[in-house]
Amino acid sequence: MPEKPVVLLTGFEPFSGQPFNVSAEGVRLFCEGGDQGERAELSWRVLPVAYDEAALRLGEAIDELRPRVVISVGICDEPRYRIERIAWNLDDAEVPDNKGEVRRSQRIIEAGPQSCAAPYPHDELARRLEEKGLPWRFSESAGGFLCNHVFYHLCHRAVVPGSGIECATFLHVPPLGEGEETGGLVDVIGCAVDAALDRLS
Predict the structure, then answer these.
(1) Percent of the chain, pLDDT > 70?
(2) How far apart are CA 151 and CA 169, in angstroms?
(3) Would you put residue 193 in left (φ > 0), alpha (ψ -120 to 50) or beta?
(4) Residue 40 in contact with residue 7, Cβ under 8 Å?
(5) Of these residues, 31, 76, 147, 155, which one is catalytic?
(6) Residues near 77 by Cβ (< 8 Å), separated by ≥ 6?
(7) Does the annotation mark 149 as catalytic?
(8) Can you list the alpha helix ranges (DSSP code H) found in 116-180?
């Protein structure tokens, strides 16, 4: 029997003084639910909201787990799910990270391309969300803060020969407070994982 593919999911720690980040809660709930346990080995990590540390932790998790699928999740400021398709080689945000660092007009990887397209079946994910009646839209920019920073590092890593990453993308999810209903969020993550696993099979 062939080994099950490893799926790595990442969310973020709280930032800007907030006590809770639903991206981390979503990936935790999904992995602990174990719905894809027969199809894949699921792992999750919470990334720090700090430029250098987030990229380092992501790389360490990839080196340790050797995933074929990596899906990163972050929060956005709109009431629908955003399927990110393009990562940009630019940190440019007025908001400081959790270490107090502000980056304006700074390349993420100096020798890297201006942008990277995520290797992922985005149209298939959109179809699945549409079937479930979940609000979504495509996006060509994950912003200039930590979400795009992690997304760019992920996409750049995925194209390295021998990386082992076959599907990778970033999802922006609506902000939720502690105790609010997370069923839709878990459904979206499930759709994202299933779309990737179907692509591998």
Answers:
(1) 94
(2) 7
(3) alpha
(4) yes
(5) 147
(6) 175
(7) no
(8) 122-132, 146-158
Q: How far is CA 16 from CA 13, 98, 111, 121, in A?
A: 10, 7, 31, 33
Q: What share of the chain is helix, strand, coil (3-state, %, to 5)?
A: 35, 20, 45
Mean pLDDT of the chain: 93
pLDDT for the residue 3: 85
Whether 84 sits among the annotated catalytic residues: the reply is yes
Catalytic residue among 25, 31, 76, 84: 84
State yes or no: is 172 an active-site residue. Answer: yes
3-class DSSP state of 98: coil
pLDDT tier at 16, thresholds 50, 70, 90: confident
SS3 assignment, position 34: coil
* Euclidean distance between CA atoms 74 and 21, whole angstroms: 8
Q: Are 146 and 48 in contact (CB under 8 A)?
A: no
> Is the model's pLDDT at 159 over the cut of 70?
yes
Instruction: For residue 168, give the nearest of 177, 159, 176 by alpha carbon.
Output: 159
Q: Tell me: the pLDDT tens digits for 186-195?
A: 999 999 999 9
